Amino acid sequence: MKRNVFVSAAASVVLLTAAPLATAATASADSARTAPASAAAARADVSAEQAIAAALKDYPGVVESLDRDGNIWHVDVITKDGKGHAELEVDAATGKVSRENVDKDENPGEHKGLLAAKITAAQAAKAAVAAHPGTTWTVEWDSDDDSGKTPYWHVEVRGSDGKTWDASVDPTTGKVTAQTDSDSDSDSDSDSDDNS
């Protein structure tokens, strides 16, 4: 009988000691199985439209340009009076906005066309994606007076095939007025050709 009590006591000690370890191992295995799913959810990309909205919430005005560089959206915003300019960064994973540079001495005359445009950067991006499905990568106000062209929105859309599609969007009507397909690495190819 003493032997049975001793064996029972030893088994109880083993179970009491092993139970927390088994529970911890099970919890670890469960969290390992769900970690990739929750990490994927946490890595959901902030779209161009969401980056624009976040930037304008932080610094109200009119978006002059938006450009994706890795995991960062670079957004330039001009105040509605044309006197202020902010360079913002929007984290593409979290949507967090940080101000990189703010200038309050801008010449309002330099931004007259942008401020008068009926089509915003977000609307230009939407028009370009409607014309060529993909993901907006760049939106830039182009008012180069040297070219003799009227101002327009330049939009780059990356298709699911990895190619970049360039569009010019009319700032008054939103009509996509020019479009070209190019490889995603064509910029680096043309740069290297120019340097030869």
Provide a brief overview of the structure.
The chain is 39% helix and 29% strand. By secondary structure, it is of the alpha+beta class.
Characterise this structure.
With 196 residues, the protein is of the alpha+beta class. It has helices at 2-42, 48-58, 112-116, 121-131, 186-194; strands at residues 62-69, 72-78, 85-91, 97-103, 135-142, 152-158, 164-169, 176-182. It has an eight-stranded antiparallel sheet with strand order 4-3-2-1-5-6-7-8, with helices on one face. The longest helix has 41 residues, at 2-42. The protein is built from five helices and eight strands, in the order H-H-E-E-E-E-H-H-E-E-E-E-H. The radius of gyration is 28 Å and the shape is globular.
Structural key phrases:
196 residues; alpha+beta; 8-stranded antiparallel β-sheet; disordered C terminus
SSE diagram, text form:
Layout: H1 2-42, H2 48-58, E1 62-69, E2 72-78, E3 85-91, E4 97-103, H3 112-116, H4 121-131, E5 135-142, E6 152-158, E7 164-169, E8 176-182, H5 186-194
